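Researcher: For the annotation table, I need structure tokens for Carboxypeptidase. Please keep the output clean. Sequence:
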Amino acid sequence: MERLKLVSLVLALLLASPSASATDVGDLRLAQSSFPSVHAEKLIRQLNLFPKKDVNVVVDRRVSGSLGAKRIVEKRFRFPNLGLESGVSVEDLGHHAGYYKLEHSHDARMFYFFFESRSNKDDPVVIWLTGGPGCSSELAMFYENGPFAIANNMSLVWNEYGWDKASNLLYVDQPVGTGFSFTSDKRDIRHNEDGVSDDLYDFLQAFFAEHPQFAKNDFYITGESYAGHYIPAFAARVHQGNKAKEGIYINLKGFAIGNGLTDPAIQYKAYTDYALDMGIIKKSQYDRINKIVPVCEMAIKLCGTDGTVSCMASYFLCNTIFSSIMALAGDANYYDIRKKCEGSLCYDFSNMEKFLNQKPVRDALGVGEIDFVSCSPTVYQAMLVDWMRNLEVGIPTLLEDGVELLVYAGEYDLICNWLGNSRWVHAMEWSGQKKFVDSPEVSFEVDGSEAGVLKSHGPLSFLKVHDAGHMVPMDQPKASLEMLKRWTQGQLSKTGAETENLVAEM
């Protein structure tokens, strides 16, 4: 009965005038931007991206056939216009690009970059997953924590704070259809975390078979935004595979979620609180928008037990909360509320598309005629039934088995704000919950200044990062590299001076 009521309510919302004010929540009418196709398109345009295709589905199976029958087709490469000292060979550089033939697919290939550590090949292997859902991990590679950034003249500039200075770094274009990853069969487009995490696990098995010298290294899963869904599911899949001795043992030590969406019931409820605290909305508007929250909570609860129609319904209902706030926020950038969006443009990531579509770059990577789909509206919409699922549920088992979790969040992000993230981390039930809740907040210092506030107990840490929005490695590159170093070395709660002294002693 509850499900029927919910479906009826959503149908009423959909039939309401799309031009209705998002603030008119007395009758819960949907804002136009709540529609997934509109929202996906808006997401892409705000980043100044214009992919030629909505999804990387190729018509001709011969395209994948040209890559051969091998599970992994990989090459060492050197990007054009990369400033290097003379005498540095492609082998010395340790940069790889490749395709993995997805084992459990009809005809899919997953594209990835692998950058060997600039410091020590015994450094951890760190995989990065970008969210969206449906955005290429090259966004992070070029604008956040990769080895280099793109200059306006299309040359590459080394990133002083690239995460490859402390790890062997993997970027994967996933789910299928995103970035350079492609298929010739639409049935390979994923709709839930089972499909996503199985693909990633199969990829890792093939990757470590190709690079056995890195299989013994510590392994960490990282990412941001919608990867708050991908990361816990993927970590659980790796842990399951290790326990079942399915293949190569993956030395999983931890997973880190940056400004992620993990537990929607808690995080959507935090939107109005965060917006009020930050002065985005007034108390009267807060009270009005909050009328949607109980209905949203009921919808998410039904999604958790039912899973299809109710999950779609909860997406529409709950996103009315966010779109109502944004209708009042005007031209504020919801990734960083300190900034304004100019017209439809909030960030300019267009150099990524220009650079990756150059023929010398494509030749270096071996991608042939495959399109680069920077962000895919089709993948975004395919994951709608997954959106409101709670991915926190699998985390306690990982914590109990000693797998570490770091949740970090820039303080000025609205869309996956620190308040909602902090609340789900504190509410999570596990054996160390009380001690974590009771633990003191300590200063996270970089170069003698407070870069954030840290709370931790045992394998669980939460870090609120100062002066950062949704993309912490872009806004605070030095602090984010320090965060990665200390976390993977088990020194996150120590000050910079203490860490330096420890390294000196070693």
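Researcher: And a one-line annotation?
Model: Confidence is low (pLDDT under 50) at residues 11-33, 502-506.
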